[in-house]
Amino acid sequence: MGYVTVARVEEIPPGHTQMVQVGSCLILLVNDQGEFYALQGLCGHQNLPLAGGKVWQGVLDCPWHHFQYDIRTGENLYPKRIYPLNALPKLREQISPLRTYPVQVVEEQVQVGVPQSCESSDCRF
Ligand code: FES
Description:
This protein is mostly beta strands.
């Protein structure tokens, strides 16, 4: 895994997101109150882009149908906590956690640690 510079800090104000592509991986950068996070860029619900999603107190809200994710862990928070998974087996697949990537800020540059799989064409994200 190596770190790749993907944005400048001032390009992503607090509470905002920005989609970047590293090799074949779509990655969503998140600025939550000055802390940066990086997540898989496609929502687990219907594989639609999470670009434009709102961030509030550590939670990312998908702009399409409002699935919600913990930006630190990628865990699905909604609808996972609402619906009985045994009654909705398809939902079980859709609420799998988003992949997360390590982030560092070096001299006002946002850098994401990406696995080698992002450099190949078989990256699913
Ligand atoms: S695509 Fe994200 S909630 Fe439907």
